[in-house]
Design brief:
alpha+beta; 2,3-Dihydroxybiphenyl 1,2-Dioxygenase, domain 1; 2 domains; eight-stranded mixed beta sheet; globular; VOC family protein; Anthracycline_SecMetBiosynth; Glyas_Bleomycin-R_OHBP_Dase; Glyoxalase_6
């Protein structure tokens, strides 16, 4: 994650601001939040505390006292697929939301305040993939704690029809520098903020799940991918793609009991 260091907080702690465009939060909306908390609590060792009331029934997931994710409840009358949503940092969520509209995206929720923690909007890109925009309140530090620790988000990847077309949208909205993968026959663009890779866009054409369409995939760090898969299945999850070794570690694509897709990654040590 790309952060910009600021002055120390009132207790002397280091404060940080995520550079615009950097993934700074992930959130999951589900139909059965209690069962979902049990699943991720057992899988990742998360504990939970109540979140902002403006977001409805919503809890923050904590690992070793650090916030790592949010889980909320979908309205019971909406039969929507559950999905992890990454939030991208912004210094002005209202302006970013307007830019999303001007660039062909759609504004679904907000912008609205989340208690005293910040301001958010939920949008979709021109292909229909949903993402959030987050502006941290000036008096607070933002984003995820303890990156790289098992149980924390490690990466976000957009699965879509064509990477180049969609990458232009995100570059226009957030000012990313996009770099296509070499060789060129691999339809993949890495998004950079201030010279650091922060997210990826993978074009998979017609290989997208018909019931899901373009969507963001969050990768969660684990100590041992194979062991985590055994635990996931025992807890009611599903393996979508078995563990495989790659340049960034040992990765597996999975789904939780409600069908929300995510990935497990054991980074090289």
């Amino acid at each position: 994650m790309t952060e910009t260091r600021e002055s120390a907080g009132p207790n002397g702690e280091a404060r940080a601001r995520y550079a615009p465009g950097t993934p700074c939060w992930v959130s999951l909306m589900v139909h059965e939040p209690a069962a979902t908390q049990d699943f991720y609590g057992e899988l990742f060792g998360w504990e939970f505390q109540p979140g902002p009331r403006q977001l409805g029934p919503y809890v923050r997931a904590l690992l070793n006292g650090h916030e790592v994710a949010g889980i909320g409840q979908l309205p019971p009358d909406l039969h929507l697929p559950t999905a992890w949503t990454p939030y991208l940092a912004s210094d002005d969520v209202d302006q970013t939301a307007e830019t999303v509209r001007l660039c062909g995206g759609t504004l679904g929720v907000g912008p609205l305040d989340a208690a005293e923690t910040g301001r958010l909007a939920i949008c979709s890109d021109p292909s229909g993939a949903v993402f959030g925009v987050w502006q941290t309140a000036k008096h607070r530090t933002g984003g995820l704690g303890t990156p790289g620790v098992p149980g924390t988000p490690a990466w976000n990847e957009l699965l879509t029809f064509d990477s180049v077309t969609v990458a232009k949208f995100y570059e226009s909205v957030f000012g990313y520098e996009g770099q296509p993968m070499v060789p060129a026959d691999l339809d993949h663009v890495t998004l950079y903020v201030e010279g650091r890779p922060v997210a990826g866009i993978q074009g998979v054409g017609n290989a997208l799940p018909r019931e899901r369409g373009p969507h963001w995939m969050t990768y969660f760090e684990v100590a041992d991918t194979d062991e985590a898969l055994v635990r996931l299945v025992a807890l009611g999850g599903r393996i979508l793609q078995p563990a495989r070794d790659g340049a960034h570690g040992r990765v597996a694509s999975v789904a939780d009991p409600e069908g929300a897709r995510f990935a497990l990654v054991q980074s090289p040590r």
